[in-house]
Amino acid sequence: MNARYLFPNDYMADPAVHIFNGKLYIFPSHDRESGIPENDNGDHFDMKDYHAFSMNDIDSDIIDHGVILDVKDIPWAGRQLWDSDVAYKNGKYYLYFSMKDKNDIFHIGVAVADKPEGPFIPLPDPIRGSYSIDPCVFEENGEFYMYFGGLWGGQLQRYRDNKALESAEFPAVNEAAIPSRVVRLSSDMLQFAEEPRPLIILDQHGNPLTNDDNERRFFEASWMHKYKGKYYFSYSTGDTHKLCYATSDNPYGPFTYKGVILTPVIGWTTHHAIIEWKGKWYLFHHDCVPSNGLTWLRSLKLIELEYNEDDTIKTIEGITI
Ligand code: FUB
Known about the structure:
- The protein is an all-beta fold.
- Helix content is 0%, strand content 41%.
- The structure holds beta-L-arabinofuranose (FUB).
């Protein structure tokens, strides 16, 4: 399968992908030209709404279902609708989204709908105890786990043991890297059921990846899938622009680093979803080729993902696809 751009009409990024009612749904961030200068805080990613998309088949055209949630309708809104994900339980769809509050602090919000196409009605407040960005929700035997977090503009370095620090703190170079977080959701899907836990990624010797290991350590863009009974946690390395993955026998980890899924693409960010549909596996992601490299104007892309005999993932070359 050749890689293809999914929606040339507009800039969309950070795809979350799920099969609902036999169709494939994509929930991306909706990039736009805000005119805000580029900085390490990510202020130039100033998105204001979300759309939902669906596909009847992997080769078919993508259907744009329009706006499913707008920042102006979210009571606690400050700015910047970043990465989101959607989960289904008992006839309702739950949209989990990253957004800054009125004090410019990222939290994770929830909005609820009867259909994946929305409209999604936001709760008046973010999830209690939530912080940082990039929620990914994974279901296992009726329990839902959220994986989240993002460094730099995503503010994860401002928290330790789920408490806000006076100011951002990075570990020393050879100390364990700042981990992403995993938390089980409450049965009503609207809150955390427990304190978020660190998601530890170990190297092949059983040592946690260190803060200076920019080629492998977590930065943002959590995604979880299961293959042959194992949990595959994948993520972006941020400033080294790769999608990597680590595996575990337990959704809470610890995970062991396995390798690179996607080498750097054109653009600063890289963010993805991995899903099996009709017996094949796919990588949904984004790059900035159509915008001639403008990092804040990203385009959705799709390519088949393959495994090796030993269940490792075959690396895809980002620039050439
Ligand atoms: O789209 C804004 C941010 O860029 C996302 O939340 C990150 O994962 C990165 O893709």
